[in-house]
Amino acid sequence: MLTRAEVSKHQSRDSCLVIIKGNVYDLSSYLDVHPGGSRIILKYAGRDATQAFEPIHPPDAIEKHLPPELKLGPVAEANVGIPPDPALPGISLAERTTNKNVLSLLRSVVNIHDFEHAASQILAPRLFSVFKAGADDEYTAQWN
């Protein structure tokens, strides 16, 4: 098992370790095939990327898309909890998506503008900005 201190020494394209959900992954060979590009992975190289990873990936993304040999095992520290989103202090993703106010917000959706407003209230700001920006070329956002 690797410690956070050991993982932090691997922050390059040649040796890129990342912690996700308490597990250490060697993503060096995955950088060039990651659909979101290598830059975002390298941004979190040597660190815990859980908070950035979870809002934009399905729960089974790692199991579906990474070969099992890239998983090096759990990080060797007792405290591997996910820090809360600083934009929504004390409110977890689960709480944001099950809150009664969220359900009433979604029931009020009549058109795309209502949907955008509801999404801006429910999603973490960083995640909402991904949807709002329309990815790389913004064509879909412009067409919509």
Which terms summarize this structure?
single chain; 144 residues; mainly alpha; Flavocytochrome B2, Chain A, domain 1; 2 domains; 9 helices; 3 strands; 40% helix
Describe this structure in words.
- The chain has 144 residues and is mainly alpha-helical.
- It has two domains: 4-74, Flavocytochrome B2, Chain A, domain 1; 93-134, no CATH class.
- The protein has nine helices and three strands, in the order αββαααβααααα.
- It has helices at residues 4-7, 38-43, 50-53, 61-65, 93-98, 100-107, 112-122, 125-133, 139-143; strands at 17-20, 23-26, 71-74.
- It has a three-stranded antiparallel β-sheet.
- A hairpin with a 2-residue loop joins strand 1 (17-20) and strand 2 (23-26).
- The longest helix is centred in the last third of the chain and has 11 residues, at 112-122.
- The radius of gyration is 17 Å and the shape is elongated.
- Residues 78-91 have low confidence and may be disordered.
